Amino acid sequence: MPLRPQGAATSVCSPAARLWPDFLTGQEKSPVRVLLIDDDEYMRRVIAQELLSDLRIQLEGQADSIREGRKLLATRAFDVLMVDLRLSDGMGFELITEARRHHGNGEIIVISSLEDDAHVLRAFELGATGYLLKNAWLQSFADAVLHVVNGGAVITPRLARRLLHRLNYEPREQPQPAGDASPPHGATLTPRESQILRHVASGCVSAEIGAKLGITGQTVNVHIKSIYKKLHVHSRAQAVNFAVHTGLI
Question: Nearest to residue 216, comparing CAs of 27, 18, 19, 17?
């Protein structure tokens, strides 16, 4: 063992703990409720152990199939659904659709070994706010849960880079003039919803918006879900894009 030079410091400062403001969703006294559905027993155990080690998260239930997943969705309240796409009795897209239909305020994170663009984009189109690859390094399942409940989105970095490359180099359709777009029948936003959507357009997450407006991040998320329903969209980007082109904001 190499000897420490005489006079060298004998202690190392440990890194400072990350601050977690009390206005963010996910506190020890009010943890984020998670459902985990994956038929890969080893991977499910790895994810569960990580979630259980974080006091800001409460693992409400686990399942290994679409059938058992449906039972969880019907009987357990949750804030975040983590679901594999390839399950023993079908594709997890079914559970994403069902969760969106009956639990509109819940967030959805896909955990999968499938990384082709078609599956990734389909998951986001159906309303997922995260997509994590099982075999990726440099990612935290617990952090992903906390990000999405606070208005963010999560995606494995190499997937994000590939999608960015696709956006940069694939030809895109010319956008239609704003006058050609019309909001769905009866799509009018309240003053508060318009205010929130303008903050979303400027890049603010739910906690930041709540701090600016004097409301909680959860209340902001409720307004955002209402905006999704009115505009018939499934993501913040779609909502902002639609609202800008139709003159709603």
Answer: 27
Write out the two tokens for 151: 């208005």
| 149-162-48 Cα angle (round to 5) | 40
Other CB atoms within 10 A of residue 101 CB: 10
Distance CA 38, CA 41 (A): 7
DSSP string spanning 21-79?
-TTSS-BTTBPEEEEEE-S-HHHHHHHHHHHHT-TTEEEEEEESSHHHHHHHHHH---S
The phi, psi pair for 40, rounded to 5°, reads -85, 100
Residue type for position 97: T
99 Cα distance to chain centroid: 14
Q: What is the pLDDT of residues 79-104, one digit of tens each?
A: 999 999 999 999 999 999 999 888 88
Cβ distance 44 to 141 under 8 Å? Answer: no
Mean pLDDT (whole number) for 182-199: 77
184 has a pLDDT exceeding 60: no
219 vs 233: CA distance, rounded Å: 19
Q: Choose among 175, 196, 195, 164: nearest CA to 246.
A: 175
Where is 229: in which H helix or E strand?
helix 217-231
* Torsion angle (degrees, nearest 10) of CA 115, 120, 121, 124: -170
The dihedrals phi and psi of 112, each to the nearest 5 degrees, come to -155, 160
Q: Give the pairing of strands 57-63 and 32-37.
A: parallel
Contact 170, 148 (CB under 8 A): no
